[in-house]
Amino acid sequence: MIRTVGYAAKHSFTGLHRYEFEREEARPNEVEIEVLFCGVCHSDIHQVKNEWSNTVYPCVPGHEVVGRVTKTGSAVTRHQVGDLVGVGCMMDSCRKCEACQSGEENYCEGPNSWLATYNGPMVPAAKSPDNTNTYGRDNTFGGYSTSLVVPEDFVVKIPTGLAPEAAAPILCAGVTTFSPMRHWKVKAGDKVGILGFGGLGNMAIKLALALGADVYAFTSKSEKINEATRLNATGIVEDDEDALAAHKGSFDFILSTIPEKHDLNPFLTLLKRNASLVVVGALEPMKPVNNQLVAFRRNSIGGSLIGSIAETQEVLDFCAANGIAPDIEIIDIANINDAYSKVEKGEVRFRYVIDMSTLRRD
Amino acid sequence: MIRTVGYAAKHSFTGLHRYEFEREEARPNEVEIEVLFCGVCHSDIHQVKNEWSNTVYPCVPGHEVVGRVTKTGSAVTRHQVGDLVGVGCMMDSCRKCEACQSGEENYCEGPNSWLATYNGPMVPAAKSPDNTNTYGRDNTFGGYSTSLVVPEDFVVKIPTGLAPEAAAPILCAGVTTFSPMRHWKVKAGDKVGILGFGGLGNMAIKLALALGADVYAFTSKSEKINEATRLNATGIVEDDEDALAAHKGSFDFILSTIPEKHDLNPFLTLLKRNASLVVVGALEPMKPVNNQLVAFRRNSIGGSLIGSIAETQEVLDFCAANGIAPDIEIIDIANINDAYSKVEKGEVRFRYVIDMSTLRRD
User: Fold this and answer.
1) Mean pLDDT, to the nearest integer, of A236-256?
2) Using the beta-carbon criterion (under 8 Å), do A301 and B299 form an inter-chain contact?
3) Overall average pLDDT of the A242-252 stretch
4) Which residues of chain A neighbour B294 with C-beta distances below 8 Å?
5) Of A79, A112, A189, B262, whose CB has the highest number of CB atoms within 10 Å?
6) Architecture of A2-172+307-360 per CATH?
7) What is the pTM for the complete model shown?
8) pLDDT for A315
9) Highest mean pLDDT of the ranges A234-238, B121-125, B128-132
10) pLDDT digits (tens, 9 = 90+) for A135-180
């Protein structure tokens, strides 16, 4: 067993505190990773607070993990000790269903769906057909910890040219916004709108610009206008009726990264005929959509869930090749609860990344 | 001027009554049509009762019109006196916008959008940029009347092999369900679900079967089960949790023809990865959709509005070639208000078609 230190929540109301636990040694197909950096995702907060009513405690969050390989199982061929690697939201999948066979493990249709890097299988045994427990466990402990043990196929390579701390948020925020842009075929010259301006919005603007799109941010807060300007957004659309009306029917694609229930209707009117608005931030019931706004231009409202392992590697390589990286602020793990408060208040225009060496110093 | 008799509503609460009016003579590019049959669409009722808050009175409904050409303008080349023809929801469009140029007049982006066969332009002058009135009129009078005058490009041919009375509902109910099946590429072997069981649902089941799909109706009312069986639906899924659960993640396409606000969430769970649910019946705010259900299989919820003129001709020819036609009941126009009541109560599993010769006998 591997003695590990992490930060865990024991209940929905306790916040995160130092927590010692043991991980199983790497199996033949697995690698052991020393965690260097871990991004702080808004979904970590939802999960820690049990806002999706599915949290398994203790909860050690963290699914934007960058680290160095410290040990490889006997069958491992893709990674070597010393490699700089990343682990995102998934650490395994059924590998047999049509989605897995098609390289879309993030939509794994196995009885327990994919195994999340923390909080265990996406479909826990109790909710699976015949009480199935494919992965042999109900919980997993994520990257807010000193080490991680992961099957090699779910470990991606951090390309040279990307700072390890900046690579971390790409593993969730990056691929979550990149995957739908690929699936819905965002291309050079497209007019793309990004709703929401947190960690996902920040990455989405940078990625869409790098894809050659004209990228518009929606906001009326001067602080966010400055931020969008700094990111070289093509334009900023103020959140009022007249400003929106001026862009009616002109967008090829809109991505909503807003992490909570919101109203899509004002943005549906901005789509071109046959165009889509895709929601990645809010995994909950949305405000009612007026189908008249959807039908009159044959639009679609889609949803998308993170991205595949191949897309995760692709977006890392894309960022390195295009010289883009998320805006981050590195924190000491002792400040994690304070960081959560700031993210929840919507005050954060960048991604917090925990320097995991601060955990060792505890 | 052409002396015309029709049935009109003068206010939202009056019902329909005999109404005499004059139509302008056919212009060079127009044909005059003697109306033989006109289908009764649920949207006629919405419009007559001003349920979309946009009705221009007097309102002469009717956009499933089959008749015979009685006069042709000097420039008409597509139709001849005596031809059996049809007119659907549109009687003109701007013909200049990208949608019109792409043969998708039903999404016309001109300042007044398309000119509806009744109730005038889809975007009335008062709601258009600069108070534009492209078509020179705020109202149009539909097919609940003895004659119609329509630009030849918006007149389709009724193929031999289709009874004229049965062709009428294809002009709206048929193309409204056929167009999204074409756009979302429903093909042989697909598993297709149809929600709603009125005039649109009836056509949707027949068209999807003729496209080679396995077609499932959703209902738990024995009367509707019998009806779906009569239509040779591949299966019937009862509207309860267990029955729906058995079909989880298995549908390639679901079309909702329900003509009012409803809950899509139970049906979203039935879609395969990357599949779409398209709403054509309800043009209003829907119940809140849980984006978790959408994102977890990368689904989309689309809307679609009638179909193009080319698709209208295509679906007529498709019905003739495949020997399918809507189930109809022919009524005397004097019974129109009673027919409306029955449609509103959801009692009608077929399409009412008005025999317009009964109007002449008044």
Assistant:
1) 91
2) no
3) 93
4) 279, 301-303
5) A112
6) Alpha-Beta Complex (3.90)
7) 0.93
8) 98
9) B121-125
10) 998 999 999 999 999 999 999 999 999 999 999 999 999 999 999 9
What angle, 0 to 180 degrees and rounded to 10, lies between the N-to-C axes of helices B309-322 and B199-210? 70
Domain A174-303: CATH superfamily, name plus number: NAD(P)-binding Rossmann-like Domain (3.40.50.720)
- Which ranges of A281-361 would DSSP assign to H, the alpha helix? 291-295, 309-322, 336-344, 357-360
What span, in angstroms and rounded, lies between the C-alpha atoms of B144 and B291? 43
Chain B residues with CB under 8 Å of A304 CB are 295, 298
Contact B273 A298 (CB under 8 A): no
C-beta atoms of B291 and A279 within 8 A: yes
Q: Is 60 exceeded by the pLDDT of residue B361?
A: no
For residue A361, the model assigns a pLDDT of 55
Q: In angstroms, rounded to a whole number, what is the distance separating the alpha carbons of residues A207 and A174?
A: 8
* Alpha-carbon distance B294 to nearest alpha carbon in chain A (angstroms): 5
Q: CA torsion sign, B243 to B247 to B249 to B253?
A: negative
A337 close to A362: Cβ distance less than 8 angstroms: no
- How far lies B188's CA from each of A237, B176, B192, B204, B207, in Å? 44, 20, 10, 15, 12
Q: Is the pLDDT of residue B344 over 60?
A: yes
Tokens of A134: 């494919």
Average of per-residue pLDDT across A260-285: 94
More confident residue, A361 or B21: B21
Interface test with A, best of B291, B297, B306 (most A CBs within 10 A): B291
Q: Is B338 exposed, middle or buried (0-12, 13-18, 19+ CB in 10 A)?
A: exposed
Q: Give the Å distances, CA to CA, from A109 to A155, A168, A303, B269, B296.
A: 21, 27, 17, 13, 10
Place of tokens 């492209």: B134
CB contact under 8 A, B294 and A280: no
Contact B288 A288 (CB under 8 A): yes
The domain segmentation of chain A, as residue ranges, is: 2-172+307-360, 174-303
Looking at the complex, report in whole angstroms how far the Cα of residue A189 sits from the nearest Cα belonging to chain B.
17
- Give the ipTM: 0.92
